[in-house]
Here is the input.
Amino acid sequence: MARDYRGKTALITGASSGIGVEFANRLAARGANLVLVARRKDRLQAVADAVKLSYKVDVQIVVADLSEIDAAASLFRTLKRKKIEVDVLVNNAGFGTMGEFVKNNTEKVAEEIRLNVATLVELSKLALPSMLAKRDGVIVNIASTAAYQPVPYMAVYAATKAFVLSFTEALWGELKGTGVSALALSPGGTKTEFFEVASEGKRKDGFSSMQTVEEVVEVAMKALDKPTPPPSVISGGSNYLMVASGRLVSRKSVISIARRMFKPQN
Here is the structure.
């Protein structure tokens, strides 16, 4: 049976592009009102206007850089002033850095960890009390297939996504029987601007065959519609097989393969 989102409020971070936009459309199509958060006001407003026009739901935007210290608390103070309670939280905001770790910009790496890990945890913590009080709610945290093995030349990114996966699955265990679902969604290569941003414009894509955002979000929506949603899902059969095959060979071999795949191109 499809989960009922009518009249619920979904908070989506990283909502100005890619997977965030697709979650906005899918949830709005099923009756959810939206709070969309991102740094780029013009793109965020364009998404909000399009969603409102298509689905006739309430859509509010909050322009914020969630990589900043105290960003999560500030966001929830804004929601409290507006008397908005979050029923669905999609922690989609995040970015990656590429290249040799020793050459990565120190402040950029710190922002990456704050956004991908600290802000995600704090937003989950702030959203949960009202969900638990209602015995109804959803938290979707965007992990990655990179969560399942170390990735040389994307060392920090893969480590943050491993945290997201572990944290979300543990949260799922704590929330059993409460009416609140926690789901980690792990896409592989996806047709978004991720790789261009991660490589600072030097690389346009990460894989020869990538999924669309529609395919990725469909996996999450189907998982959440199950009577007992799982703690995590991997998007795409080939990605699932890649993760599964990684468990059949040595850790050393897995790292060596990843090293060859992601070594910077001269």
Q: What stands out?
A: Residues 119 and 125 are 10 Å apart (CA to CA). The longest strand covers residues 180-186. The domain at 9-262 is CATH 3.40.50.720 (Rossmann fold).
